[in-house]
Every structure is written in structure tokens, then in C-alpha cells.
Amino acid sequence: MIGVRPSGRRLVGPVVVVLGGLLLAACSGPGNASSPEPDADASPSATSGTATDGEWDPHTWVPTVTITPVAMTEAEKVAWRTQWLADTAEQAGLQDPPQVALVRWTEGNADHDEATAGCLTDAGFTASVGSDRGVDLDVPEAQVDAFQLAMYVCESKYTLDPVYYQEWTTDQLNLIFDYWTQFYLPCLQAHGVPVDLGAVPSKAAWVAAFHTSRRLDWWPDTVLQTTPASIGRPAREACSMYPPDDVFYGQ
Description:
By secondary structure, the protein is α+β, with helices and mostly antiparallel strands. The chain folds into two domains: about 40-70 and about 165-250, no CATH class; about 95-165, no CATH class. It has seven helices and four strands. The protein has a four-stranded mixed β-sheet with strand order 2-1-4-3, covered by helices on one side. A hairpin with a 5-residue loop joins strand 3 (about 125-130) and strand 4. Helix 1 (about 75-90) packs antiparallel against helix 3. The protein starts with 14 loop residues before the first strand and ends with a helix.
């Protein structure tokens, strides 16, 4: 699956679209006790063993950082939405996008994915929530333009609360690196995915460079690109790449 990396904002799940057999994608375990906890600046150590899908629940992971929620006024959210919809229409090639009233802000990725999938289904497309964030779609090539319009309308109706689009803070970067090294990578290993721990940068270097031109191009799920589908697909479904929204964005 081809995806677009988060820029340091929302933990974006892909909208996966099948066009005439061609798969395209575009953005729109146990807890710590089961695996060794790495030093703050170290790469993860290897873990071994097997696990069933039910054992790898991201809610069992104990957060290493407490995140303070972003505060925005309703006026700030509305202004953000206006500009964001204009940018979205331009990127989708919509010359005269319709004015669509906001039905409600969606709160978190799961809520947004469910609302988007339901809205697209109501518009006549075959849509479902993906196994780990995002929406899976089957769009005939002849309906791509109609899909772009429907997607715009659905995003207008169920816009994700802008607090989920803000740049990731240093605390969030530290937290997600810990989650990846303490939970996600061990989960992949437990499901048979070969993980080169030597390729994992130190947390200090990764966090320090993230919002700079020297950003390290490392993402933990790249190992799935070279893993046979018979192993990678079940692992992707069993191992959530991101912690729960209330953990990553704060209560």
C-alpha cells in the first residue's frame, strides 16, 4: 500500500482506493511488562515470541508522557475549516465546490473514519473503515471525479476537529517514539515481521530533527513493504501503528 507520511499533524489513516484492480492510497499487544523498556536515547532491543491478535491491545500500553490537549476557540476552528476546505477543493481539482454546512465536528480518528465511510456509502460508494485507521474504498475509474466531489462533501459535513491537525509537539514526538519502540515494533516481531533494530535511530536524534530540514526519514512501518503479504497483512491488522487518540492528543 502506498501512503503519505504524516507531516507532524493528524495521525492520518489512508483512504485506500481500488481503481480497476490498481490499488492506490492517498491521505485525506501486551503492555511494557512484556518487552524491555529502552533507554530514553536508545534504539529498541530485540524481542521474541509469538502472540495472538487479542494480546496486542494498544490501550494496554502505559504512556510515557502525559499530553496536554490543544485549546482552540470555536471561531478559530471555523476559520481554520474555511481555509482547509478551500485548500482541499483546490487539491481535488474542484473548480466550483458546493457550500456544505458542517453537520458536526468529528472527535478523533475513529469517529472521523466511521462518519466518512458512512457518508461515502450514502453517496453510493462502497466504503468501509480500514483495519488500522482510514477508509477503504472501491471506486470504478469512471467515477473518480464523482468520488472527489463526494469526498469533499463528506469532509465538509464531518470535518475532523482542527486540534487533530496541529503540528506534533515535542511531548507527542517523544510519546509516539516510545510507543513505536515499546509496543508497535515488538508487536510486528511477534507476528513474524523481520525488524532491523539497527536501522532505528535514537529517540533524541529523531525528535530533534523532526521539524527541521534534517528530518530523519524513518518510519516503523516501512518494514512491511518488504514483508510477504501472508505475514505483513495479518501483522498490519493486529498491530496498531498509533496509540489511542486520548493518549496521543490528551484527554
